[in-house]
Amino acid sequence: MTGIRASLESAQLLKQNADQIVDSVTAVDINALPDRSVTETLQRISGVTIDHFLSANDPDHPSAEGSNVSVRGLTQVESLLNGRDSFSSNSGRSLNFEDVPAELLAGVDVYKNPSAELIEGGIGGTVNLRTRLPFDSPGQVIGFSYGINEGDLSHKSKPSASFLYSNRWKTENWGEFGALIDVSYSELATRTDGIQLEPFTMRSDAAATAGSGLSTVYVPGGADWRALNFKRRRIGISGAFQWRPTKDLEFTSQFIRSRYDMSWLEHGAIFSDTSFDIDPATGTTFDYNSQGVFQRGSLSSIAWNNRLSKGGVGFDTDTRYQTQATVTTDFSNGFKYNLNDHVLLTGDVQFVKSTSKELDFTAFQMIYLPGMYLNTTGSGGMPLVSASPASYTSNPANYFWYAAMDHREEEVGMDRAFRLDLEYDFQDSSLFKYFKMGLRATNRTENNISTSYNWGVITASWASVGTPSTVASLNYYPANATLYSFSNFFRGNVKIPTPLYFPSSSLVENYASAYGILHPMGVSSTSAWSPVQFTPADLNDQGEKTKAAYGILYFGNDTALGIPFDGNVGLRVVRTDVDTNGVVQLLNLSGTGVPDAQKAIWNGGYLPINARTHYQDALPSLNLRLKLTDDLQWRIAASKAIARPSFTNMQSFVQLGYVLNADNSKVVQWNGLAGNPYLKPERATQYDTALEWYFSNTGMLYATTFYKDIHNYIAQETVPEIYNGQQFQITRPYNIGTGTLRGAEVGYNQFFDFLPSWMKGFGVQANFTYLDSNGGVNTATNPYTNATVIGVDLPMTGISKRSYNLVGMYEKGDWSARVAWNWRSRYLLTTSDVSTHLPTWSDNYGQLDTSVFYRIDKNMQVGLQMNNLNNAKVRTLMGPTSYGNGLVDSRLYNRGWFVADRRYEMVFRATF
After folding, report:
1. Domain residue extents for the chain
2. Which of the four pLDDT bands, split at 50, 70 and 90, describes residue 428?
3. How far is it, in rounded angstroms, from Cα 447 to Cα 89?
4. Using an 8 Å Cβ cutoff, are 432 and 568 in contact?
5. Burial (CB count within 10 angstroms: exposed 0-12, middle 13-18, buried 19+), residue 722
6. If 0-12 CB within 10 Å is exposed, 13-18 middle and 19+ buried, where does residue 373 land?
7. Per-residue pLDDT tens over the stretch 887-908
């Protein structure tokens, strides 16, 4: 059997017969997971959600394929590859699922409440990616696929291809051999358009309130708009070799290598004044609704640099280019040996290496737009923006070269893991089935370099050069600037000033030569931009060793409780040893006006800091299944789990800082940022119960309820610390706070075989998840003082109260089709967005995907896969907003709207 029905039946058998609560997606057909990326596949499973952003802490840049997998709202997910721990260096502890080609996988399993034999590391759940083995098939298998995909905004066709060969051979004297090679290649090009509002600020001044009849109003700083062109290339190879010299002995080697190359180029017109600089244009007033929230009006700026602006509203026209290359290699060798009819010995050795390099470079020009009109009552609340005269944006003399910013990362992670397991079969017991015990040891190193975002000026009103306008205007330096028109922006549904001049893409894509181009235009000062250099403070050097032992007893009986039952009870014990090396980055006050005695103490430099710590955890687990009937079973599960802190949070690093008074003669605030190498893991005690009814080979109905009691939440806290006799207020992560998470999942699968004739091919898959959480440690940040806000109650990040999947299927004869709707409700993305310093939320989001395939013959099929057919909008919100002294605006304001390509891919598959 092949196709949708076969994959559904395979996944259902895995769930029904599993020793714990698990959900699976399988690919019975070669290279045929139902979605084109692992993240998109995972979101079809009940309780699993993904973000639609390149990263969770960057709400300004959505991702067409999604990212950041959460299980039951928690991102602390353990990622396994063929049952072994694996990771991507740029994701820290877990695999970046976007890095792994979906074409290499035979299936994906999500364990919700794991047993003691599974590797520890996730309080949300455990995701296991499975690749194929040659002994999975009875003989030779050849499979290949080819596809062309294109988006309706990017208008760029990109290929994808895969090839698999697997075979097994029996010999007279050496037993049986099997070999497999699976290669995949895919490219993707997408475009994302976004428009945003700057934060709304509470105003009571006469200019803002004029004509409103209100004493207090809320005015946005302005609007931003951006277009991002994203490209990625993913190359994967999976190889496997198996040898069974006798019926009792088997050896397996597996090799997986994935390379993920990503780049994106963004043109953004970003508001550059402050919100409080915005006033109504001369002779006009703003329109507000009955709550005093801005609706529309003509804007002018009273910014301190109005010598250049002349009342126009300041905008950066920036061109940003980011590249990232991640390579992950996973090589393992294992064996199985039946010592006798009762005892099985297994073991394996694994080596993982992952490297990642990232370069992020932005060049900024600036323009002050006159006659700017902002309307926040467009379709769905989207802003409409215009400038007058419209021709102003096409004149290069109205722009100048403003600044540049770069950021670099280089990460190398390696892990060596050793595992040995012994299984004893109780053949003569009426209650006990078998007992397993095992040992596992790992040695992992992380050497990560990540610089700060290095911003520097080229020219500005406060950084003048010797031109008539005192800035490096484009009519003096026109080279490397281009006019960009935002063609078909938001498919024509949003009005913005266009075209605008931007730094050219060739400039930002050639980082090595950018300094030689930009430096001659600008000022020569300490604040002028020059390429970022690695410093000791940028290095995160860590080592981690773990030693784990487990024992688990499997039991079962058909009569002892009056109904058949089985299950397992176990204990996993693990010790973690951490060794970190880093520095304290000291102050350098030599260029300030503070007393000489302080300059002598604080003259820069670094002090080494090294930290060693360890912790132990005992993780019991129980899984019980009661077989109420042949088709109906009830599961009960309880366990303890841990999620180790991220390597970023554990960095041995302290960066001391200061704030001077107005005349730079005295330090009025001593502060700093730091990591915490002494963090303990987050710990959870969790309970599940599930009722599962399997009424046909491809029909099931299940309901699961769960509860998690979580301790040791990791959050930032500011406490006093002493350095060189001086007290500093240092902000670093600590284990503080507790929380609970409870919820329920329901799911239903069925093909309607009772229908007549061709209608038998219809079927449906559906699941729904509800989550409720409280506690945790989530604080907001005052956007103007960076102080922790008191009185703002925020939920845990990443948790949508409701999410669901609804999939319509059809498979009959040579045709198969699938229409899939995925939806999740609003959730908190971050407690303090890097751009607004406000809590930022992702609003309700639903996406429609579909596919249709025609089987040419028993070996070949052709199809069309389509994503985002409903032209979904990713919408972000911001708030609450604190103004200090307990004054909080609790409203959530519109922040951003983003649309991405509708994607189409023609696919050809063949299996022999």
Report:
1. 132-512
2. confident
3. 9
4. no
5. exposed
6. middle
7. 889 999 999 999 999 999 999 9
